[in-house]
Amino acid sequence: MTTEVASLAINTREKFQQLRQSLDKAVIGQQALIEQMLVALLCDGHVLLEGPPGLAKTRTIAMMGELLEGSFHRIQFTPDLLPGDVTGSEIFNSATSAFEFRQGPVFSNLVLADEINRAPAKVQSALLEAMAERQVTIAGKTYPLPEFFMVLATQNPIEQEGTYPLPEAQLDRFLFHLKVDYPQFAEEKAILKLVRGEQLAQLDRTEEQQAEHLTAADLHQARREVLNVYLADSLEDYLVSLVMATRDPQAFDPSLNGLLVYGASPRATIALDRAARAHAWLNGQDFVAPENIQAVANSVLRHRIGISYAAEAAGMDAEQVLNKILAFVAVP
Q1: Helix or strand or coil: residue 118?
Q2: What digits encode the pLDDT tens for the residues 15-43?
Q3: Sign of the CA dihedral with 29 first, then 32, 285, and 111 last
Q4: Helices 216-227, 31-43: crossing angle, 10 deg rounding
Q5: Are residues 178 and 272 in the same domain?
Q6: pTM of this prediction?
Q7: Cα–Cα distances in Å, from 158 out to 59, 148, 163, 171?
């Protein structure tokens, strides 16, 4: 690596670290969540965040939207939402006596699909083509989405009333499924102080100095650097073995037999490879270590596997099954 290229890489990484620090200050107690969202941004992948209401899921995404160069749009998913409210629709123009396509909110760089599982399946599926193909088809015509396009969706736990489970095909389009948990005692006190300060600043009509926006060129350069992070052949074998273990778990240990009804697709292998590289890059490494793969494995795989009734009867969830797989697959 030449001195000029090395300097450019350092500058790009520094900008991401500044973005990370700004988000850490604005959202208390969610450092792990912020790190994985930045990893997804580096991977050009979509993210599904799950947790009870009030845990700053929407706030985290909105803050990221403010710190990134580009358009940001929030879509509130409700039971009466229609697919056209997401993708857009054709409107009759009386002046030209013709139908014209009017873009919906999905035509943005960063799309917040808030409480995505509060809307029925036909609305959820409106995002499927957009997420998978980066395009929208209306009345037989295809419209491309922006080059930088990322869906950040929030959902409430499916056990809550008024929720619709996402179909497996759509879940597989998300790079990460992140679980958001309650803050600790000290973090909860820090949240009180932060919110009081924000409310006082709003009343005083003062504005804090915003961090410099991360530009599209910065993001493009960072993604190029991520793809060039070194991954040894032995670790590539380890990565593939983790995914294979979700399809044939008993081959790795008899105790895993019967815990899964289906495993992760090749899309999971691709996602795990890129996410591990991004995690390494974000933490200042120029090579992937086993710890980087393990750090993102659950987020990549938890929504891509099917837990059997036997596992549920034994009180096991996807997290516990994946932890068992991580324990049994040999690390090189």
Answers
A1: helix
A2: 899 999 989 888 888 888 999 999 999 99
A3: negative
A4: 90
A5: no
A6: 0.86
A7: 21, 30, 6, 14
Structural domain boundaries enclosing 103: 45-192
Residue 174, pLDDT score: 94
Determine the Cα–Cα distance for residues 83 and 198; give it in Å rounded to an integer.
Answer: 36
Residue 208 lies in a domain: no
Please give the single-letter amino acid code of residue 165: P
Measured distance CA(175)–CA(166) in Å, rounded: 15
Instruction: For residues 168 and 104, state if they share a domain.
Output: yes
Q: How far apart are CA 167 and CA 271, in angstroms?
A: 19
Per-residue tokens: 243? 């995914």
How open is the CA angle 8-13-15, to the nearest 5 degrees?
100
Task: Quickly list DSSP for 15-46.
Answer: HHHHHHHHHHHHSTT-HHHHHHHHHHHHHT-E
- pLDDT tens-digit profile of 241-270? 999 999 999 888 888 888 999 999 999 999
